[in-house]
Amino acid sequence: MNHIGQSFSESKTGTTLHVLIDYENVQPDILALCARDDVRVHVFVGALQTKISIDLAQAIQGLGSRASYVRISGNGPNALDFHVAYSVGHLSALDPDARFLIVSKDTGFDPLILHLCEKGIVCERVPSPPEKPVAPEKKSVPQNGSEERVKKLVACLRRQGAAKPKRRKSLQAEILCLFGKQLDTGGAGALIDEMQRRGIVSFNGDKIVYALPKTAA
């Protein structure tokens, strides 16, 4: 889950994208996050962290009410991670259509993200924000039906290159994140079965073997 997908560019116009930064783990440049009004930035700072970069402070100040610091309470293993997890749950309860991007190199977030995707909550993790400014979202006609979904999934997988999901469970999570609330777990499984029927994927045990077409399926 180290690519930028639906959270940034393929979700419904008008929904809020919450970017949660694990500042104990990464100290990213967030300038690219300032280009879109629907972005909210939450910077999680460890209890013992007493300094932040001037660049970050200026970027946060420029975002005004669209950005905030979250100083965690106390120390301990994964203390900041628990604060991030709570915030995702709290914000998704307040706004069920919100999207979430966790900025961290910590792969320990991935089981949480898988669970969120299974519940229809769009969430991804990336080790750093995009280097280029995030463009405003464009309205698009919803794509329905297995044919359009296969095309969309194949295009997404081709973009990922070697970072494609390697096992059925991770591919299912990828599909749930890509299509959001358009598909449930059963629908994601059916789409995998359709990909297998077309010979686009096959399985060696639980491991995926890809035969992605050069053009849309």
TrEMBL record:
It comes from the Bacteria. Residues 20-120 form the PIN-like domain. This is PIN-like domain-containing protein.
